[in-house]
């Protein structure tokens, strides 16, 4: 399908619904069985739900909440909200009751669609009293809600194919709240379509039989902005991961043509491979000319990634060593950089010009500048948000009078226009020696250590940084002495590569992992640095004074 910078998601959907009505669009796993939804079946259910939403006589462009893990009904509900002329407000499925209450009230949602959740009983207290809720089918629907199947059985579908104006507000995406309360980023249909159009040359939009697996949270801009956009542009089939423990099996069943993830998922793949084949053995086999191609194909096909045409990584810095490790397997991973506020992508690494440590060049239509005083990255494009919902002061602090979006990231542009991210403005801290430290850059040096699952470098007011470490499953099988020796070797290898004031004095092994539940990670699985620092602030100075390079909490 030919499209322009103003072709909306609904126009893409109507095209495939009309031209490929019987092709499978959505595939939902239930154990070893898959439930299929064709483009026509998806459209019919979306039109029935849209008609029901219109029957509620809500004001035009009302906000409709959507809380669910990724599933077929999520896509159908999103389409229905668009068709009914309303605005979707998706929420993370891991929110607590209090967190849900905050975003529900802040966003002014009139209706809430409730789907596949692990703990709806613990979350439902956050729904404002008297608000109408609709339960998805099959995922323990709440008997107090309007039932999806009742709507499908009784509501005639819309007979038209309504289209929004490109300038209409499409969705409000709440940030995951790494530094405070979540903010609602307003995204128009035009923001979304411009981002796709600007990025089209990097996304391999001419592949045969396109397939994607949807597993990152659909309420997050990475999945919503990139995967959903690519799906509708390609007319692709979407497979879903049933649960975390079935992800590997579901991925193999999908054999996606496009795959994107955060660095952590690529690290997990690496750890899985190395748990079966030590690095020394893998290096030896890859040096043998006749065998190396066989080994590469075996590893990639075992993961289910043998059909992938485009590998993308985004949302967090990708360690250079990890990029190089995958390149030895014949996998070229392209980095993308962006945020909710500029609709997911402003730079992409060209496939034929990967520069480790850089996150690519600005896509067509995107301008980037670096503020000389602070090194902050600013962007300007038609994909930039108009601001934060119901937060004019925050909007003014983020988007200046000339339309430049201030990202909060610190970076550098080289002579060829390639961007390097060096830290966050608010995360940099000063040591007791008066030197400024960017912890994210130091943490990247630990990223490919198979013994480390999570790390947070802290040390404001200390002479040298300290690394707080959560061990990986692989490390948990080892003795304390083996772990100590391994981590000491990691420090001895990394520190000489750092500036003197950046060198990590000590690693502290944590007793428990950082999770969404204990409020030390965001729902998008980013470490809440300020919460980690706050949780261990009183102990850090004591740990620093202990003897040895590796100590236990």
The assigned structural class equals alpha/beta
CATH class of the domain at 9-234: Alpha Beta
Gross CATH architecture of the domain at 9-234: 3-Layer(aba) Sandwich
Multimerization state:
single chain
Rg of Cα set: 24 Å
Mean pLDDT comes to 93
Q: How would you characterize the largest beta sheet?
A: 5 strands, parallel
Helical stretch count? 18
What CATH calls the topology of the domain at 9-234 is Rossmann fold
Explain what this protein looks like in three dimensions.
The chain is an alpha/beta fold. Among the domains are: 9-234, Rossmann fold (3-Layer(aba) Sandwich); 429-552, GMP Synthetase, Chain A, domain 3. The chain contains 18 helices and 26 strands. The strands form 7 sheets. The protein has a 5-stranded parallel β-sheet with strand order 4-3-5-6-7, sandwiched between helices. α7 (189-199) packs across α8. The model has no long low-confidence stretch (mean pLDDT 93).
């Amino acid at each position: 399908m030919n499209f322009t910078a103003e072709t909306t998601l609904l126009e893409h959907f109507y095209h495939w619904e009309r031209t490929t009505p019987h092709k499978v669009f959505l595939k939902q796993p239930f154990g070893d069985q898959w439930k299929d939804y064709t483009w026509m079946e998806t459209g019919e259910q979306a039109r029935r739900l849209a008609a029901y939403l219109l029957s509620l006589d809500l004001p035009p462009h009302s906000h409709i909440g959507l809380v669910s893990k990724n599933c077929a009904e999520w896509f159908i509900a999103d389409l229905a909200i668009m068709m009914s002329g309303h605005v979707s407000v998706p929420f993370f499925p891991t929110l607590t009751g209090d967190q849900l209450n905050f975003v529900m009230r802040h966003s002014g949602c009139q209706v809430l669609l409730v789907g596949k959740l692990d703990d709806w009983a613990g979350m439902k207290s956050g729904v404002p009293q008297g608000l109408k809720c609709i339960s998805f089918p099959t995922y323990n629907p709440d008997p107090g809600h309007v039932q999806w199947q009742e709507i499908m059985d009784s509501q005639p579908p819309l007979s038209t194919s309504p289209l929004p104006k490109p300038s209409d507000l499409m969705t409000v995406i709440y940030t995951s709240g790494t530094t405070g309360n979540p903010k609602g980023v307003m995204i128009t249909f035009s923001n979304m379509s411009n981002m796709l159009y600007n990025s089209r040359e990097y996304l391999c939009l001419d592949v045969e039989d396109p397939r994607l697996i949807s597993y990152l949270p659909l309420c997050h801009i990475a999945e919503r902005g990139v995967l959903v956009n690519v799906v509708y542009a390609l007319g692709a089939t979407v497979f879903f991961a049933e649960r975390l423990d079935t992800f590997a099996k579901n991925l193999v069943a999908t054999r996606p043509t496009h795959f994107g993830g955060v660095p952590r998922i690529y690290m997990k793949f690496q750890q899985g491979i190395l748990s079966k084949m030590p690095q020394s053995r893998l290096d030896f086999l890859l040096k043998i000319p006749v065998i190396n191609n066989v080994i590469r194909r075996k590893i990639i096909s075992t993961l289910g990634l043998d059909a992938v045409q485009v590998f993308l990584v985004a949302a967090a810095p990708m360690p250079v060593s990890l990029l190089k490790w995958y390149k030895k397997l014949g996998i070229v991973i392209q980095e993308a950089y962006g945020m909710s506020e500029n609709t997911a992508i402003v730079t992409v690494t060209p496939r034929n010009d990967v520069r480790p440590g850089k996150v690519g060049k600005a896509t067509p239509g995107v301008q980037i500048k670096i503020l000389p005083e602070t090194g902050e990255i600013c962007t300007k494009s038609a994909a930039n948000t108009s601001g934060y919902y119901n937060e004019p002061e925050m909007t003014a602090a983020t988007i200046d009078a000339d339309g430049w979006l201030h990202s909060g990231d610190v970076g550098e542009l080289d002579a060829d226009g390639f961007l390097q991210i060096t830290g966050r403005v608010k995360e940099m801290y000063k040591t007791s020696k008066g030197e400024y430290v960017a912890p994210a850059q130091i943490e990247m040096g630990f990223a490919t250590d198979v013994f480390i699952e999570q790390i947070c470098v802290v040390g404001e007011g200390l002479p040298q940084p300290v690394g707080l470490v959560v061990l990986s499953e692989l490390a948990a099988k080892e003795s304390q002495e083996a772990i100590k020796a391994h981590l000491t070797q990691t420090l001895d290898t990394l520190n000489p590569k750092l500036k003197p004031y950046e060198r990590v004095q000590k690693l502290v092994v944590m007793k428990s992992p950082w999770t969404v539940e204990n409020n030390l990670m965001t729902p998008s699985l980013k470490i809440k640095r300020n919460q980690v620092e706050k949780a261990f602030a009183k102990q850090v100075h004591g740990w620093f004074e202990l003897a040895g390079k590796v100590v236990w909490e």
